[in-house]
Request: fold
Amino acid sequence: MGCNPVRRIAGLAVWGCRVCITLIAVVVLTVVGSASEAVTVRVGLYENMPKVFTDKSGKAAGIFIDLLDEMAIKEEWKLVYVPCEWPECLRALEDGRIDLMPDVAYSQERDEKYDFHRIQVAESWSHVYSNSRVPIARMSDLNGRRVALLKESIQEKAMLLRALNGFGYNVTIVPAGSIEESFRLVSKGSADAVITNHLIGDLLYQKFGLAKTPIVYNVVSLYYATAQGRNSELLEAIDRHLGGWIKEPDSPYYKTLCRWVENPPEQVLPRYVFWIFGIIAGLLGGATGMIWLLRRRVAARTMHLARANEELHRHREHLEELVNERTRELLRTQEQLIQSQKMEAVGQLAGGIAHDFNNTLAVVLGTSELILGNLPLDDPNHTRLCRVIKAGKRAKDLTSRLLTFARKEKLEIGYTRIRDILLDIVDILLSSITKKIEIHTSFSEGDLVILGDANQLGQALLNICINACDAMKEGGKLRLDAAPVYLEDDFRDANGLKSGDYCLIQIGDEGRGIPADMLNRIFEPFFTTKEKGDGTGLGLSVTEGIVKMHNGLIEVESEMGKGTNVKVYLPTVRNPHDTGKAESDESPRRGNRETILIVDDETDFTDMMSDFLSGEGYNPVAANSGKEALDIFEKCRDDINLVLLDIMMPGMDGGEVFTALRRIRRDVRVVLCSGFSVEGKAREIMNEGACAFIQKPYDIQSLLKTISDVLRK
Reply:
């Protein structure tokens, strides 16, 4: 059967219609889908021309509005502008009634309530405009005046009020709901001056017949803001567009600024100005003949005003200088207070750790010495225990340094050879630093002897050497020199040094050097030139403190690319005598079953001491609290020959226990022991009648000698 051409054409037409309908449906669905995906952004709109305002046609306009409209086109945002007064706009942003607020000046207080993007939109500063009948030309002229301010504006909490209050000025704030209202209040005499940003102020002050004063302050950065924790995607998009526009001279960003800032809206002169011009013209026509009579008086008056203006300018500059100096002083004081609080916290932490660690070391060293005393010399464990005791004594030195840093440990003063200290440091460095660094030493002939704490000085000089090695990542030469030096009187006086002989220790490196602008800060606590994570910033601060405690001086010379040289001046002594502590030739005797009450809250310590004293012929009795010790002493007051009393205990501390013991028996013999030094609480108890003090961790022979000496008295 043949095919009918008409039917074929009709079929093709139907098929074509179906295809067209399908395509139209796809397009419609795409458009509807796109529209449905558009994001609605509610934007606060208040009056602050030319940044944000409503133009004559009732539409939103201004710098922030134009930029936001450009972004909305690219981001497919649907912008809904919500008119409101400034305070109400901020409350609406916090309550979630609007999503975005333009023209928000950044401050730390606002940062706690709102989120800001990173790239600022513009900068603005505050200007003072006054009633033309009120003379205001400097800060002091605002004293006793009424100042109109926009409610909850950045000017209301700006540094002007802090500065005025700091100098005792009294300013009455007249709040206004809008910027135009604040200008209107001054024009009507309800306020003497108004403070606002210069952009809108320069547009409005002539309209309301106000005067523009020379007082300018408070430069702020302007941003868009969202409620804290909300609409972060809006801020990210704003940063993205601003970041791109700022790099392009012909971008919407610069076009918008040129349109509103360089060519602001035309200002309309009030009608009364034209009347004034007409009257003046008439007066000039009638007064032409009198001008020559007034010229001399005008010239004299002009000269007087010029002198007064110069004097006013000098006073204003002097006041600004005083304000700036006062501000700098307050900032320095604040930084010093914060730094002092940091160091106090670190000192308390270091002292607490050192005290607890000393208690632990006392058990470790005491138990080790007990075991060691019962082992023959050829026993393999004899050597091992000696290593344990040696390591424990090194740990004891470490806690001593921590207590010194915490100001709870005094220096152990003695005659020390500089050569010995430096050679010990070289030994430590050779086993710890990279082989790429060569160590060169140069010591003068003869012994250079100082009166000081060898451990503390060694730590101070080691800190300098470690910093020098850290500066030579690729290797180099480390120089350690020591030689006597003569100091001129002027040099000593300028640096507060005493007269006498000195030793100069120089530590030099070939590292990258220290920038000149950082040299005067390297001794500040927590300041470091190292990368983050490579240093605490405490090393040189502690070093300077140790050198000063030894009546010395430290200087640093550095040049970028050539390395650093540190000079340490320390006073030396001539013909030093052997000042080692006079030890009694009489060795400690064994106990004769004397009863010793051991009072300590550490059970391990009392157990160890009980074992040791039992082996030495004594009768030990242990108490792990102050109350338990008093109960035992009350029952056995006549049998107890000596009390070994810890100072730091929970509940009743050593001082309270000592006082209670003296009330029970006046002649009780008490030996104090503590992880801290004798200075502080221990010194107070010693002054009240304690017999002796021994610091944890102590060696067995020292303890036995102390107990023996006290019992023999």
